[in-house]
Predict the structure.
Amino acid sequence: MTEPSVRIRNLSVDYGDTVALSDVSLQIARGGRLALIGESGSGKSTLAMAIAGMLPRQAHVSGSIEFPDLDRNATPGRKPKLGKDIGVLFQDPGGSLDPVMKIGDQIAEVIMTHQGMGWISARVRAAELLDRVRIPKALSRLNNYPHEFSGGQKQRIALAAALAGHPSLLIADEPTSALDTVVQWHIVNLLDELVRESGLTLLFVTHDIALASERADKIAVLYRGKLVESGPSARVLGKPEHPYTKALIGAHISLETPRGRRLAEINGDDLV
Amino acid sequence: MPPLASFFLRRLASALPVLGVVLIGGFLLLEAASGDAVDSYVARSGALDAEQMAQLRTEWGLDQGPLYRFKAYASALVQGDLGWSTAFERPVGTVILERLPVTLLLMGCATALAFFLGSLLGVIAGARPGSIGDRVLSIGSLALYAIPGFWLGLVLIVIFAVDLRWLPIGGIETIASGKSGLARLGDIAVHLVLPVASLAMVYLALYLRLMRDRMSEIWRDPFVKALEARGIARRRIVWHHVARNAVLPVVTMLGLQAAAMLGGSVVVESVFAIPGFGRLAAEAVARRDTPLLLGVILCSAITVIIANLLVDLAYGKLDPRVRAGR
């Protein structure tokens, strides 16, 4: 087995009395696609932000997060650089872009920061990236501002900016939750394609089980700050071991769910 | 017509009713005050008997009713005639043109100083909200904001003009110095230092606080987190993103403060004995010189309208969302 892209050992995060994550150990395979699922407050976003190194300053962290890839290339124990080693895509597409800067400049500044390119070549590169995320007539839209794009397009632009520094790991924190279903589908397909093409490692946080089962090769289920189950998607969803995973699958609603059927409720007291 | 020119014309046209209201209001207020231009003339120049006073009133048109006089003023105004100043015994237009540049220079310098220095210090304070530098600047600006301009002016005069003798005590230039060209400009600049400083300080504090507060709000905006996630250097986030977004309300305030600045210049011009527009307004009221006062009001209103227009244009340049909506 090859070295993983990220190795997490006994990670715990708390904010004083509130425990957000306790004793999580997990590996993300290089080029793999891992979905973190769980309900709101389960700690899935905390885990994603901990890997990105973007936890608030008040957070107490114990345990370790290693990036074997980085150790191999350079000085051991080097911290990953945001933008260059890790790209992050957030939930709110409107909130990821500076409202008063041209989108071409916002992508170009990431390229200039990490690639050491001049402004002109960075702008050319930005146009290529916009083209890759399927913004029509990319070159002519470099000088447009975020408000001139739709929600789905803004998320594509944010994706282009997240990928502009050539990161090897992309962390997507509920990247499609704020978008409507059709747009969601397009973004997910695009994400899928880019990951395959460039050999990215993808970690995505979602509460959408259908999305996780379709797009991830591994799933990790978090509940109340604990990792309750993890493994290949088909195994976790087909033969769930933990009662919470079973309950989560039972509560899933899809187009095939018969109308009028009462959805299963998750009663937390039975599970712990 | 180019869109910019038509925008300009539309804004001026929409300002016309405002000018009308301002003029009528100013006229009525002066009508309501006791005494008229002849009383004021007599009070200054001494003896005139009743017959001479009546003759002067006829000559200046004061024997007519207010409605007639306002109509006469308005019809002359439409033809571009601002009337005759009874206090200065010269045409109002000439008097105003003499005084306006001085005040515009004073206001312009004070506005520029307050805006640039204020927002610069605001960025320094807002770059790290809650840091020691931020606290020092915030408390300093609060203290500065609490100091009235005329008091600051007097203190500055005592320190720099009386005790240290570094700067002139008042006026706009050395009288009959015979200087011309660059030497004269330098002379005016030296005279402007203290009045500009005392007029600008309050606004400097205002812009500093506004910039700093807006920046500390923008730090919490999700796009800042996204920029950090892309590895953009903090310095660049401060200047190119947070400060750039925070300057928008400061520019709006710049337009709103143009009128207040004109009011403040009345006080500062009196303290520093500068023959400016603000003092002209005070004299016009004291001398019950209706045409002069109306001329002053009209010019102030136009100045404020133009200042706001320039601010709107700048705002459109700074905020792409507004430009699209115009």
Summary: Strands of chain A lie at 4-15, 18-29, 33-37, 60-66, 86-89, 169-173, 201-206, 218-223, 226-232. Chain A has a mean pLDDT of 86.
